[in-house]
Design goal:
It is a single chain. This protein is α/β, with parallel strands linked by helices and about 325 residues long. The protein has 2 domains: about 10-135 and about 295-329, Aspartate/ornithine carbamoyltransferase (Rossmann fold, 3-Layer(aba) Sandwich), CATH 3.40.50; about 135-295, Rossmann fold (3-Layer(aba) Sandwich), CATH 3.40.50.1370. It is about 40% helix and about 15% strand. It is built from 12 helices and 9 strands. A 5-stranded parallel β-sheet has the order 7-6-5-8-9, covered by helices on one side. Helix 2 links the parallel strand 1 (about 45-50) and strand 2 (about 70-75). Helix 1 (about 15-30) crosses helix 5, helix 2 (about 55-65) crosses helix 11 and helix 5 (about 135-150) crosses helix 6 (about 175-185). The longest helix has 20 residues, at about 290-310. The chain is globular. The two termini are about 30 Å apart. Keywords: Pyrimidine biosynthesis, Transferase. Heterododecamer (2C3:3R2) of six catalytic PyrB chains organized as two trimers (C3), and six regulatory PyrI chains organized as three dimers (R2). It catalyses: carbamoyl phosphate + L-aspartate = N-carbamoyl-L-aspartate + phosphate + H(+). GO terms for molecular function: amino acid binding; aspartate carbamoyltransferase activity.
């Protein structure tokens, strides 16, 4: 793997499969009475969040702590950033504190890349979402979830998603999750189709490694996984569709539409959900919806990313009795 994780497009197939396989090992730790590993003891991970977040921030914090790293949570609100401090000065402060990895979420697309290439930070930089650009660890946890559900946790080791048909539905224009998923799923051999109103399809999408459709009902019967995206009204300054009701009628997933999917197909959502708009409560609460699994899998996947980037000096997963001994020291 490279030193930083900025874009899903930076990952080769071997890199992606290595992360997914390592995440599978990390997931087994969650079933133990003691869930901590000593692999990143003495390392410092900083969560640098310039945007509000619940799932991603807590997930990275849990991942780092389970690997025994020291964690510093930095929020722009209530910090010197709110007084006008620049990204550079914030980064230099973190470097002075000895950060081995900086996990950054920023409202500006490209901020993580700037941080990684500026020389301000000596450690690794992980993109936890930048503007409408990318969110690579979300794509990794989504791929991990798909591989577990569609291939199986045991049979999945060393495997990719070759031949699987993945449909991503909704606000593609403003979705960093969609962009990262298209890149990663293509790398893993999946066939991706984007479905959205014409107004929510990005300019230049024809260069992406995917198909585009405007007819959800035509795509559902041949989908192995359907990922519903949240309509990001906070990023919209115009009317991209007539009404919420019209959007739900054409692009929302309800029980009737779910019934048209293959029997073993799954429904995904990166959260938070707009229930009743892009997805109904009936679908969100069904056994076929993996939204809660995705949250749990996010911790395992981010543990794998931090472990591989920071090059833990010990095996990723020690024998259980050793892990208990380390914890009780």
């Amino acid at each position: 793997m490279k030193r930083h994780l900025i874009s899903a497009a930076d990952l080769s197939r071997d890199d992606a499969v290595l992360i997914l396989d390592t995440a599978e090992e990390m997931a087994r730790v969650a079933d133990r009475p003691i869930k901590k590993l000593p692999t990143l003891r003495g390392r410092t991970v900083v969560n640098l969040f310039f945007e509000d977040s619940t799932r991603t921030r807590i997930s990275f914090e849990a991942a780092a702590k389970r690997l025994s790293a020291d964690v510093i949570n930095f929020s722009a609100k209530g910090s010197s950033v709110s007084k006008g401090e620049s990204l550079k000065d914030t980064a230099l402060t973190l470097e002075a504190m000895g950060a081995d990895a900086v996990v950054i979420r920023h409202h500006d697309s490209g901020a993580p890349h700037r941080l990684a290439t500026s020389g301000w930070i000596g450690g690794s930089v992980v993109n936890a979402g930048d503007g409408t650009h990318e969110h690579p660890t979300q794509a990794l946890l989504d791929a991990f979830t798909m591989r577990r559900r569609l291939v199986g946790p045991d049979a999945g080791i060393g495997r990719d998603l070759a031949g699987r048909r993945i449909t991503i539905v909704g606000d593609i224009l403003h979705s960093r999750v969609a962009r990262s998923n298209v890149h990663l799923l293509n790398t893993l051999g999946a066939e991706v189709t984007l479905v959205a109103p014409p107004t929510l399809v990005p300019i230049g999408v024809e260069t992406w490694p995917c198909e585009v459709s405007y007819d959800l009902d035509a795509v559902l019967p041949k989908s192995d996984a359907v990922m519903m995206l949240r309509v990001q009204r906070e990023r919209m300054n115009a009317a991209f569709f007539p009404t919420e009701r019209e959007y739900a009628r054409r692009y929302g997933l309800d029980g009737d539409r779910m019934a048209r999917m293959p029997e073993d197909a799954i429904v995904m959502h990166p959260g938070p959900m707009n229930r009743g708009m892009e997805i109904t409560a009936e679908v969100a609460d069904s056994d076929r919806c993996t939204a809660v699994e995705q949250v749990a899998n996010g911790v395992s996947t981010r543990m794998a990313v931090l472990y591989l980037l920071l090059g833990g000096s010990e095996p990723a997963v020690a024998p259980q009795n050793n892990a208990r001994t380390e914890e009780n020291k």
